[in-house]
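Marked as duplicate of an earlier ticket. Keeping the data here for the record.
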Amino acid sequence: MKLLTLVRHAKSSWQDQDSSDHDRSLNDRGLNDAPLMAQRLLQRGQLPDRILCSSAKRTRETCDIFLSAWNMQRDAVAYEETMYLAATGTLQSQIESTVDDVDHLMLIAHNPGLEQLAQLLHTNAPKTLPTCAMVQYELDQTSFALDKAEAINLTWYDFPKNSA
């Protein structure tokens, strides 16, 4: 069995008009939400073996907060330029290229591609992924080959404003 966790980056700032979209930082809400969501995943006891992260500053900052909360090293992370504002097909290719010895893969990326991927993987997936939302799937197989998956199960969905 494989676990796949999709994460939308935490809330970013639009204050610095001189920064490119790629270089936008997290705002105060994002800096508060990311540690909260990191703790929620830690409480579930489901930390990833491998993280694929968009190269955008807001995704890297979200990832850094997660790594710090989990006391995890950066060698578990690959920062991927192709994941910046990536379409669903690009994200799916990144997942499917993951080596079989990874049991839990996390993607930290952007909408709309991430939302579309979530819905493609399971009909009951949330229609929207707010900032710092996480959605997790179990793949009943030994690889991340999504096109060959016999069963992809939606196991949970969470987001910062969820009080559960």
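See parent ticket for discussion. The chain has a mean pLDDT of 94.
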